[in-house]
Amino acid sequence: MPDTSARLVDVVVIGAGQAGLAVAYHLLRRGVQPDRLMVLDRGPGPGGAWQHRWPSLTLGGTHRLHDLPGMADTGLTFANAPADRPAREVVAEYYAAYERTHGIDVVRPVTVAHLDRDPEGYLVTCAPGSAVAAVRARTVVSATGTWTSPRIPLVWGRERFRGRQVTTADYASAREFEGRRVAVVGGGTSALTFLDELAAVGASTLWFTRRVPTFHDEEVELSPERGRVAVAIQDEAARAGRPLPSIVSVTGLPRSALVRRLESAGRLVRHPMFTAMTETGLVMRNGTELAVDAVIWATGFRPEISHLRPLGVVGETGGIAVEDGGVVGEPGLFLAGYGPQASTLSSNRAARVTARKVVDHLATIS
User: Which pTM value belongs to this model?
Assistant: First the structure.
């Protein structure tokens, strides 16, 4: 039976990263009362996934953030954010100021375990130790991002490897790999950043990717045209309910200062993906084995949507059918920052549309 004792609100937004905060901002501007809106976030403080990134990561260059809607009201902008401080500190401070300025009351830490249908809409059940146990909502906006769901490719023998294995989300410092033989797997900016940082501590690195990386001579990752193509491909996959392709496989990588530095140092040497792992190393396509001490899986992330599985909206291949931010067949359920909304710029633009649709839906059920 549904837990009808839980508090009932009009909207629950799950996640207080870029997408979740942008939607909350527009919901408040469209007249949703603060006490009828609940924003839940699993992090201990503001900053979304950025608060968990490694200390050496800074903003600027290859890592950029677009301002949230209404961010000018805080007196801050990411356009001139400090590039000499850890990004996780800067983003946390900016997001905290944004929440205060716009009266977005975020309840944290809250880990949403699962959603179920409720006579009023949905029952949001939270994991033990969360700041709230459960909440009922007429509509739900899931903006949970990807940071907690790293993607690791299936490689025979991976569980036998006795060395260290970490994902991008686990990476803390290059110093932990000082003097080690490290395989970096992945074709995105994080993988290149690791190659650069590891070389500075004397690690011996090998770079592996599934496909040959493509580089373009633009300083930014997404030019308008490249961005339109990426959004169209992501949108087509989302509408069809298929797993989402990685952005870098669509856009390629900019020939940034980081790329040029790695090229000039001879460290941008790519190897085809290994076929298996042993207790002490990697098996190449020709059958030879390379000994390594550690593997860093910089192989991207999947959307964190496990909490939506009880609703039956997640397909067998792991995708959700989403059109313009709304889950097909679930008029009260929306996804923010998913598919074509994955970049910080597109999530900002989509937040206004999502908020309007949420308010329109509330009007039909009131």
Answer: 0.89
Nearest to 140 by CA among 301, 43, 27: 27
Helix axes 87-101, 18-29, angle to 10 degrees: 10
Longest CA–CA span in the chain (Å) reads 66
Residues in the chain: 366
**Domains plus CATH for the chain?**
7-148+302-365 (3.50.50.60), 158-217+255-297 (3.50.50.60)
- Provide the residue-wise pLDDT of the chain in tens; the chain has 366 residues: 445 578 999 999 999 999 999 999 999 999 999 999 999 999 999 999 999 999 999 997 666 788 999 999 999 999 999 999 999 999 999 999 999 999 999 999 999 999 999 999 999 999 999 999 999 999 999 999 888 999 999 999 999 999 999 999 999 999 999 999 999 999 988 999 999 999 999 999 999 999 888 887 765 555 556 566 666 666 676 676 776 666 666 667 778 888 889 999 999 999 999 999 999 999 999 999 999 999 999 999 888 999 999 999 999 888 898 888 899 999 999 999 887 666 655 667 789 999 999 999 999 987
Burial environment of residue 208 by CB neighbours within 10 A (0 to 12, 13 to 18, 19 or more): buried
Cα within 13 Å of Cα(221), Cβ side: 22
What lies within 8 Å, CB to CB, of 92 at 6+ separation is 45, 46, 47, 50, 51
